[in-house]
Structure formats: structure tokens, C-alpha cells
Amino acid sequence: MPDLSKITCIEDLRRIAQRRVPRMFYDYADSGSWTEGTYRENERAFQKIKFRQRVAMNMEGRSTRSTMIGQEVAMPVALAPVGMTGMQHPDGEILAARAAKAFGIPFTLSTMSICSLEDVAEATELHPFWFQLYVTRDRDFMHRLIERAKAANCSALQITLDLQILGQRHKDIKNGLSTPPKPTLTNLIDLATKLRWCWHMLGTRHRTFGNIVGHAKNVSDTHSLASWTAEQFDPTLDWNAVEQIKRLWGGKLVLKGIMDPQDARRAVDSGADALIVSNHGGRQLDGAPATIDTLPSIVEAVDKRIEVWLDSGIRSGQDVLKARALGARGTLIGRSYIYGLGAYGQAGVTRALELIHKELDLTMAFCGRTQIDAVDQSILLPGTEPLSRSNP
Fold first, then answer.
1. Which of 140, 282, 318, 370 has the most CB within a 10 Å radius?
2. Model-level pTM greater than 0.85?
3. Could you tell me the mean pLDDT of each successive run of 10 residues in the chain, 392 residues long?
4. Which residues are known to be catalytic?
5. Looking at domain 10-379, what is its CATH homologous superfamily?
């Protein structure tokens, strides 16, 4: 077991992951679309918001415990769905799910995961986790995928709404990231420097998209998978489809990718239990605003009728607290835990969660609060928080 006591922030984990994970897979997770302006702004926007420090207040008895759609959580954080997590570290989805379970927060499995629904369910002894669904043109496959999620004891379904078409990420093109990956000379040379990753990859049977290969019609290997996935993004996805999926699923439903107050109100009308203010980590529409800047107008539009969560740009417990202060009931982290996974596997994910939790706890205390559910906008310095600008 590595000594991770000197890992003091998420950035430490990022640097180690960058050295250990093959470039094409590291860049896949740590990149944005086009100029990457929105990707960078997601982080910068948090830094503009300042806290009000309070003193001479009793800081004993602190708790970060809360709930997200009725589920108790050790802190208002969940692991976001990340495609190809099992390429950041072999068996990555299983390791991340185990770390989340032990820490007491939810894990979300992506449709485009390497380990399948069944793999994660078996490895976590049917401990409830969440499943993220991409709406595909192959409706029969999608319906069967929903049934598999039920059988795997998934307690909530997330529908990603902002990937009807795929944004362009320059690094993926330059790295030859495809299905299967292109064995270019550059990639082969890079793999030769990642012997630890290669050694662990040899020890797992999970090397392709486990939710798709062997389940979608005529998709039996990575080559047939390539042509199938190229045809499956569904540009016709609309609110009627969302409502149909809600009825088919029958359980807790979360809508991911909301960035506009009008869409937030449609999310409420669709019967969703929560929405996620998300710009896909800056990987889709470059030039979109940061999620933390958009959050207040979404919270105002929803008016407490469903829960509002936030992802994209969270790298610390302070970011979590700022989101909570601005009305987010919960948050999701993607890259922050992916860095930990790429650096040290399950232990790295656990360390990422420990870092976020400690910073959340201490910052909350410095702001004069001892219970996360008592945190509101009054902990922020007036004039530094984004203003609510809900559209009609």
C-alpha cells in the first residue's frame, strides 16, 4: 500500500496520473473541446467566489452528512459517470465503485464503461449504485440496458442530455483515439514508458466496452463496436423521449447537462427527481459559461421543486462548499477522482475523497458552520458570488 500522506491536493494526483496513464487515455479524460476555453473557465470561475471568515464560534460537532435524492451521503458528493474509466486504470470502474462504497458516497457507472453493469454489481455485492444512460438510436438495446440496470440494483438512472452529437476534442484526434485505438508509432512508444499500466492491464479481462460488446445486436468485438457506436448518437432526442424513459425506468431519474433556466423548468415538468447543472466538463460546447456561474439562475428557475446538483470544474472541498452555498443540493466529481484512479488505483480514489472531505469540513468551520445542511449563500463574501439571472 503506497504512503499517500504527502498527497495534499487533487493537483498532486493529476501530475502522477499524467505520468502513469497512457497519453491517449489521460488526454481523453483531461481535455475539452475546441479551444478548451469552457474547460478552463469551469475551474477559474470557482476562484472568483470568496468566503466570509467567521471567528470565535463553536466549531465542535461538525458534520458533512447530507442526502441526495433521499440517499444518505457522507458528504454532498458523488462520483460522476466517466467513459472508459477502466482505461485510466485496469478494472477502474470496479475500483472506483468500491472506494465510493467504503467512503459512503454514490458511484455512477457510464454507459461507455469498460467494466459492465454486471461486473460492478458483482464486485460491490449488489451495493446500490447509479447508472448513466446515453439515449441511442437502437431503442431495443437501450431498453434492455435499462432492464440490466434494474437487475444490477441501480438505485437511480441519469440521462445525459448534452451528447446528442459529439463535440470535437483535438487531443483525441491527434492521439488517434478510436475504437479500437490506433497502434501508431507514437502510441506504442508511449506505452513502452507505461510498463506499470501495461502489466496491470495484462491481468484483467476487462478491455472493451462491457455494457455494449455482446449485448448490442451484431456487436461481438471492438471492430464491430466501432461502426455501431458511430451510428448511435441520437440527434432526435427530445423531452418526449425523456418522459418515455422515465416511465420505462420507474425509479429515481436524474437529468444531466442542464445549462439554461428554460431547460431546467422542462426538466421539472418531465418528472425528474434531480437535474445536474453540467457542461460535460467543457467537452461539448466550447464557449459555454462555467457551471458555477450558471447555477444560481437554475436554482431560481427550479424553485425547490426538484434537487439541483452541479458538476464540471470541482477540484476541492472548497468548490463543493461554494456550490452548496449557491443552492446545489449535491455535486459530482469526474476528473478529480479519475486523477486518483490513474495515479494509485482504488487507494488513489480514496485519497481524492479524503482530500475533498477534509477541505470541505475545515472550510465550513472557518465560515462559522458546523452542519452542511445549514450552509447557505451567507457564507460567501457579497459581490463575489454569481448573480441569479433566470430567463423568462
1. 282
2. yes
3. 92 98 97 97 98 96 98 98 97 98 98 97 97 95 97 98 94 85 86 95 95 90 77 92 97 98 98 98 97 98 98 98 98 98 98 98 98 98 84 54
4. 280
5. Aldolase class I (3.20.20.70)
